[in-house]
Design a protein that fits this description.
Radius of gyration: 20 Å
Order of helices and strands: EHEEEHHH
Structural class: alpha+beta
Shape: globular
Oligomer: single chain
Number of helices: 4
């Protein structure tokens, strides 16, 4: 498992004293893991990893749905739909496994698909420079980074610095773009 850096306490979620109080498992939807070639121990190890991730206090909630051979093996949620964000004092409302979630990185596949559609339609090329579309991106030695470089994670564009990461930033598109444009790529 990848160790995640912890944000300052003021930016971390408020975790309930008991994980049980913010855990919801739809056991009626889950099949016997043995029926699909898995073990109960394996399923519990996966769930323990999810709990460990939640304990970092970086995510207000997590949902997990795993299917194998068309059957639901795990349908679970941990965390809150409300009441545990930094500065909130409750009450904490546990998240249901069917609740919609923001899945930021999962959207990369959709973005890549749409970019490839634009390439297919002749609207852009993978070799086009990002700076051709966002001139401010050319700062700090990033002038030659291509669309292909971004899609293949070879652009060297770092993540938002931990000390600047805060929930409100996710809603400020212009500020995020400005931050990315101003960042130097990491040294090779």
């Amino acid at each position: 498992m990848i160790a995640l850096p912890c944000l300052p306490l003021t930016r971390q979620i408020t975790r309930a004293p008991s994980l049980t109080s913010v855990t919801r498992i739809d056991r009626s939807a889950e099949c016997d893991p043995l029926a699909v070639g898995m073990t109960t121990d394996g399923v519990e190890r996966i769930w323990a990893a999810v709990q460990t991730l939640y304990k970092t206090r970086l995510h207000p909630s997590l949902t997990l749905l795993i299917r194998r051979h068309g059957q639901v093996v795990m349908k679970r949620a941990i965390g809150c739909a409300d009441g545990n964000l930094p500065g909130q004092t409750g009450p904490q409302v546990a998240l249901d496994p069917d609740a919609p979630q923001c899945i930021f990185s999962a959207s990369k596949a959709v973005t890549a698909l749409l970019i490839h559609k634009l390439v297919e339609d002749g609207e852009l090329r993978l070799t086009d420079r990002i700076a051709d579309y966002i001139p401010e991106f050319a700062q700090n030695g990033k002038q030659d980074i291509s669309i292909r470089g971004l899609l293949t994670h070879r652009a060297g564009v770092p993540f938002i610095p931990r000390e600047q990461a805060e929930p409100d930033l996710l809603l400020d598109w212009d500020r995020i773009v400005q931050m990315i444009c101003e960042m130097p790529p990491p040294l090779p």
